[in-house]
Every structure is written in structure tokens, then in C-alpha cells.
Amino acid sequence: MSKITKEELKDLQEQMQKLGAIRNDIGVLSGQIAALNQMQIEQIGKQEESKKALEESYGKINIDLKDGSYKVIEE
User: How is the chain split into domains, by residue range?
Assistant: First the structure.
């Protein structure tokens, strides 16, 4: 039975180990992306609820987020 050198084998093993680590990191990042996307969807929902509540109180307005002033949207 013929074999590659120990150095060649070690190099291949290290390459496979690094590839496994990269694939693991990709899996972790994919999970984080999914979680962040869900958090974004939830935040958009909260923003829409706030917008509706403000619209009920003030009508349709544009709010300056720096100081809270607003202008009525003319229709």
C-alpha cells in the first residue's frame, strides 16, 4: 500500500479542519441572520402600531424625529 508523506497528510487534514470550521461559522451566521430578520419584522410591526396610534391622535402627520415637531399631511 502506498501512502502520501506525513507532511502532505497533515496539510490535507488542516485544510479539512479549516473548511469544517468555516462551514460551522456559516451555519452560526445563518442562524443569526434569521434571528435578526425576525427581530426586524417585529420592530416594523411595532413601528406600524405606533404610527396608527399617532395617526388616531393627530391625523396624518410627518414627524421630525430630532425634536418631535410635526407637520400635517395635506391630502
Answer: 6-72
